[in-house]
Amino acid sequence: KAGVTQTPRYLIKTRGQQVTLSCSPISGHRSVSWYQQTPGQGLQFLFEYFSETQRNKGNFPGRFSGRQFSNSRSEMNVSTLELGDSALYLCASMQGLTYNEQFFGPGTRLTVL
Amino acid sequence: GEDVEQSLFLSVREGDSSVINCTYTDSSSTYLYWYKQEPGAGLQLLTYIFSNMDMKQDQRLTVLLNKKDKHLSLRIADTQTGDSAIYFCAAISSGSARQLTFGSGTQLTVLP
Description:
The complex is a heterodimer.
Chain A: E1 5-7, E2 10-13, E3 19-24, E4 31-38, E5 42-50, E6 53-57, E7 64-68, E8 74-78, E9 87-94, E10 103-104, E11 108-112
Parallel strand pairs in A: 2-11
Antiparallel strand pairs in A: 1-3, 3-8, 4-5, 4-9, 5-6, 7-8, 9-10, 9-11
Chain B: E1 4-6, E2 9-13, E3 18-24, E4 29-37, E5 43-50, E6 55-58, E7 61-66, E8 71-76, E9 85-93, E10 100-102, E11 106-111
Parallel strand pairs in B: 2-11
Antiparallel strand pairs in B: 1-3, 3-8, 4-5, 4-9, 6-7, 7-8, 9-10, 9-11
């Protein structure tokens, strides 16, 4: 069974641009969560989607948004990029609603110049 | 909200036991998790413990939970160089804002 895949793996953008990151969960998994990892703030929860509905949202500005498609694939979008958005963005999938079987992808490294 | 704290660094000799500690603040936390992150990789779930348990053992890993002190530890027996990584403690509460809160991570270095 293939793991969680994230594309692209690396991305360089400039301030003010927008970016879309993609996450394909493990086959059969209906829940996708997104996390931002930075040296300063550590791992922070962005949002969680289950069956195309946002179930939970972390404390991030409205520039950060996401969606989930009917095949459970998810995208997150960051508009008007700031230098502080440089981070590793991790996606994780679960079959149901229990974190006891949550699998992470390798992440997308976003650099904002 | 929940706050999870960990020490930043730990060094051990190969073959010794490693003990990584974590404290959390929300007494309603139902599940507590340990994740491992190797360089350039995502997080790997190592083990978890339910809040009504005191201990859980899984091969070389032992998790101890002191619910009164809100203290969690991960013991790795016979630590190997391949265990060098960052270890994250995480907690989830039973409240409606169900989300994982992670500690800052402990960098474990295993010396030969």
